[in-house]
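writing this on my phone so excuse typos. first protein, seq and then structure
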Amino acid sequence: MKHLLLCIALLCPLAATAQDKPAPATRPSWPEAMLATRESCQKFIARQVQPTGTFKPFVSELLTPDKPLQQVSVNVAGVDKLRLVGICEKQTGNCHIWGEAKLITKDGKEVRLADLKPLAIRVGWGSYMVNENWQKHSLRIGERTFAHGIWVHADNDICFDLAGKYERFEAWVGLDADRPLGAARFKVLQGMDDPSSALWAQLSRDFPGECKAFAQDVGNGREREWLNKATDVAIEQSVIAHALDSAGPIAQALRSELASLVAAKASPSDSRWLDLYQRTRRCADALGSTASAEPASLRPAIEQLSKALPGRFAAPETLLQELAPLEASWRKCLPAVAKADPESLKQAAELQRRVQDYRRTLVLSVAGMKAFVDSWPAVDLIAEWQSQFATLQHDLRHRDRFDKHAPETLRPESLVVPSDRDPL
């Protein structure tokens, strides 16, 4: 008994130590890590617009087509690196001009900024241009034309090495009169420490798969823009929509979630945006290139083919009987797939393969179709037709997006207008 009590006495401190020991830190989810990283980036940006020494950063008003122009005059005495930043806050397609941008030395000598080579350049589209815009027109903001200056597409961040040689920086900033769209804000900052590249590199090391997919879906290197700008959820909605295009039959349920977030006006800091994107992308990746194979659309297709091709469409009753178990399997599988359950995603991928085989059987059931397809042995005609139809469906689903960007079109005569016949 004494030995037992002694053992208990000896073990008690160990037990207490084990209880007192903090639990290992839980690794944050990808959405949590993304939002925490963006918060860090936003804090850095907030510090950048605080005065330091004699330098007071410049932040413009929100410039729009109705108010496209603002004058800039900044004391840059002692500044080593000067950054000119342009951020598109509403609508895309912003083209920015720094008109008659110049640096002034202590003895009054003026140096055109267009004559200096930038130390670093980041533009949202195209390239950094001097003294003319992308159409080789003169630089013009509103009704004012400038003899010299720089032209860049939003979002942009241009850094110049001043080496402390200048006293003032002066310019006129605003929207290019050839494309006065949306709303933009301009900043004059010092230093070239933009942490977004380093922060994104760290995120990519911690979450390589998720970050690679996000970068591909956001396009044009805009993952850094997501870190630098937390004013809206335009990028979140864009990447979710991009992933939904490949999510196949599960897309409808996920679109309902997206609509709920939009209706609730969920803030940019709400993790549900990135959680929905992550689940949607996992579904799209699991379903692969066959994601357009939706069994729910096959039953009406069979019925319509029977009516449209009487006598040429073989055994519709048999095809409908074979379709029933596929439909039932989808209905059972989809709720778990919407949650990106790994096992259900595997089942969904297998069901997609079976549905694709069924669709092929359906096409070949039309009299004469097999002989026609076999006459083109070098081409998988059925797969090509399905791919073209999926592209057409995609464009029709996003007609509102085409309408939104139509005013930005250089040649309006190339647009498909509402009066054109709907191909479906």
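second protein below, same order as before
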Amino acid sequence: KPPVPPPPPPTSRPTGPASAAPAPPSASLTPAAPKLVFSPAVATAGPIAEVRLTGVETDLLISLPGRHEVGRAHEVSLRVYSPTVSRRHAVIVLSDDRTAVHVEHLGGSNGTYLNGVELAIMKPTPVVDGDVVRFGDLELKIGLKRL
């Protein structure tokens, strides 16, 4: 057998700004960061079957799409017993296509907070599994069960 020739020497490239080749477009994009999982527009595991809000002595369940009021009034669909929660404090919305959940503060005097940030009045704010919502002093963890 004839001898195998040695591999060619590595090609040297000059360094410096004048010789730097631009990175291909895909190289400048970072892969989807975990924070993108929190986008309500990204349905990662199918439609939402139910929304559960749990806390000390409180367990609220939403299983139908639509607007669900939270408060102390007898007429609201998600009734809570806390003196710091207004009669009509907030709304939890499960979208008709079951891909997103929003919370909306209705103007209760003690505020509505999502993960410690106070929500603006009448501004729907998306929520995801594991978020913590607070109505007055009542703190509840959001759980999303997907189909």
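The chain has a mean pLDDT of 82. thats all i got for now
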